[in-house]
Amino acid sequence: xxxxxxLPDPQAxxxxxxxLSQATRLDTFRLLVRHEPQGLPAGEIARRLEVPHxxxxxxxxxxxxxxxxxSQREGRSLIYRANLEHMxxxxxxxxxxxxxxxxxxCDPLLASLTVPDCSASATxxxxxEPRNDD
Amino acid sequence: xxxxxxLPDPQAxxxxxxxLSQATRLDTFRLLVRHEPQGLPAGEIARRLEVPHxxxxxxxxxxxxxxxxxSQREGRSLIYRANLEHMxxxxxxxxxxxxxxxxxxCDPLLASLTVPDCSASATxxxxxEPRNDD
DNA sequence: TCCATATGTCGAGACTTGTCGAAATGACGA
DNA sequence: TCGTCATTTCGACAAGTCTCGACATATGGA
Lengths: 134, 134
Prior knowledge:
Chain A has helices at 10-19, 23-34, 42-49, 53-66, 84-101, 103-114, and strands at 40-41, 69-74, 77-82. Chain A has 134 residues and is mainly alpha-helical.
C-alpha cells in the first residue's frame, strides 16, 4: 500500500497464502492481529500457542518473509506485529481480478466486504484492549 | 453467506489458503474469477494454463473441496465456476479478528477495502465480456 | 453397441515442508 | 568478562504434496 512492502505480484500472493495455510502460522497471525498495535514477543506467542520456541521461530520466519508480520527488537525480546496492510494488499489483488472481469460480480462482493460487524466507525464494536483468549 | 457453504471455521480457512498457495491453483482460480459468471470447462482451463488434464483435475479437486469453485455438467464437459462468496467469507473471517481487537485498526482496513478500482457501481470499470488474456 | 471425446482416479517417484533436539547468536546485568 | 535469558539456526527424520503415465468412467453420436 504505502512503501516498503508489497505491490502484490502473483509470487507474493502465493507466499502469503502458503504462509497462512498452516495451523500454527494462521493461529500466530490471528493472535497478532488481535494484539495490534502493541504486538507480542516471540516467547509469549510460543507460550500461548503451546509450541516449542524453535518451531515457532521457523514459522515466524515464514510469516515474516511473506510480509505478513514484522519484528522489532525491544531489549532482549523481539516484538512481532501483524502487517495488516499486506493482508489487505493481497485481498485487493484478488478482488481486482474479479473487478476487471465484471462489475456485476465485483460490486456485491465489495458491498458485503464493507459492512461486517463494526465498520460503522461511529460505534466501535470492541474496546482497544487486547482480548485475553489465547 | 447464504446456504450450503462456509461459515468459515479455522479449518475451512486453512483449506482455502492451502488451495490458493500453489501456482497452478491460484492461476486457475484467477482465470475462473475473470470468467464469471459463465465459467470454463475443465479441458479449456487445462489448455489455457498448459497443464496436463489429469494434473489439472487434481488441482480442481483441491479447489473444489476447499469450496473455492464448483462445477456443473454440461453435455460432455464439466463447467467450473469461481465461488466468490467463499473467498469473501474467508476474508471476513480474518477481518473480523482484527475488528474485535481494535476498531482503530479495523476501520482504515475496511475503508481501503471498499474503494478499489471500480466500486463506485455507477460506472462499471469493465465490460462483462471475459478478457482474453489466459 | 461401438467409438471418440471429456474428465476423473490410482499409484509411484521426486520434491517440499513441519517438527524438534542441540548448538549458536545476541542482549542485558553483575 | 561471565552467566543468563530470549531467540534463531542447523541438521535429521517423518510426513505431506506435486506431477504425470496408465487406466477408468461418463456422455453423446453413428
